Structures are given as structure tokens and as C-alpha cells.
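Module 6 notes. Inverse folding takes a fixed backbone as the condition and produces residue identities as the prediction. Think of it as a translation problem where the source language is geometry and the target language is the twenty amino acids. Below is one complete input and output pair. Work through it position by position during the lab.
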């Protein structure tokens, strides 16, 4: 599992660096500082998700695992809404553009997190089958 974790953390870093480069090269997309802070927010949240699922994944039951994952997803949605609220109160300009960029970032990191979690589950099932035999 550590190799899978390391692979996805490396991929997460690569995606984050690529997104930061895109926003630096094309600053007219949205306010660069807020876009980069959104990227950092999603990076840290996905990194936290990877580390928590790796730490707790093998020691909890299947039901607790589902509850953990749903809690992490709901937490991400609530923190994302809070992030948008802070932006709307502090900046108040380019709201539509910021929300579209934020939604695109949300979907990119959601895809990345989903790929990680499905790979992790496949590996856990394979490991479980090998230990039964």
C-alpha cells in the first residue's frame, strides 16, 4: 500500500504544480492569488485524505471505512463552500469566473481522489484474496 500511496502523492504534487504553472502563465483566467490558494486548499485536502485513509484503512471495518470516506467528502464540500463564501465577502469581483474555475479545480481533484480510492480498494481486495488462499 505504501507504493500506491507514494505514487498518488507524487501524482498529486505533479497535478498541483501543473495547475499552478497554468495559472501563472494565464493570469487573466481569474485572480491569480485566489486561484493558487484554491489549488493549495485542494492539494492539502487530498493529501490529508490519502494519509487518513492509509492510516485508518486497514484497522477499521468496511462500514466505518464508508463512513470515513463519506465524512471526508462532506467535509470537502462544506470547506469548499466556506472558501467560496470567504472569496465572495473579501473580493466580491469576478464571482462567476472564480466559481467556474473553483468548480473545475474541484472536479480535477475529485477525479484524482476517486482514482486513488478505487485503486486502493482494488489493492485491498486483492490482498484479502491472497491472504485467504
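Target side of the pair, the amino acids:
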Amino acid at each position: 500500500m505504501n507504493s500506491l500511496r507514494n505514487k498518488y502523492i507524487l501524482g498529486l504534487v505533479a497535478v498541483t504544480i501543473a495547475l499552478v504553472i497554468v495559472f501563472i502563465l494565464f493570469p487573466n483566467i481569474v485572480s491569480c492569488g485566489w486561484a493558487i490558494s484554491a489549488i493549495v486548499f485542494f492539494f492539502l485536502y487530498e493529501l490529508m485524505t490519502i494519509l487518513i485513509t492509509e492510516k485508518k484503512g486497514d484497522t477499521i471495518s468496511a462500514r466505518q471505512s464508508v463512513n470515513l470516506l463519506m465524512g471526508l467528502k462532506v467535509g470537502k464540500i462544506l470547506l469548499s463552500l466556506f472558501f467560496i463564501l470567504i472569496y465572495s465577502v473579501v473580493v466580491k469581483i469576478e464571482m462567476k469566473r472564480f466559481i467556474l474555475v473553483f468548480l473545475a479545480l474541484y472536479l480535477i481533484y475529485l477525479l484524482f481522489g476517486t482514482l486513488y480510492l478505487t485503486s486502493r480498494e482494488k489493492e485491498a481486495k486483492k490482498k484479502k484474496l491472497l491472504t485467504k488462499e
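Reference fact for the lab report: The mean pLDDT is 84.
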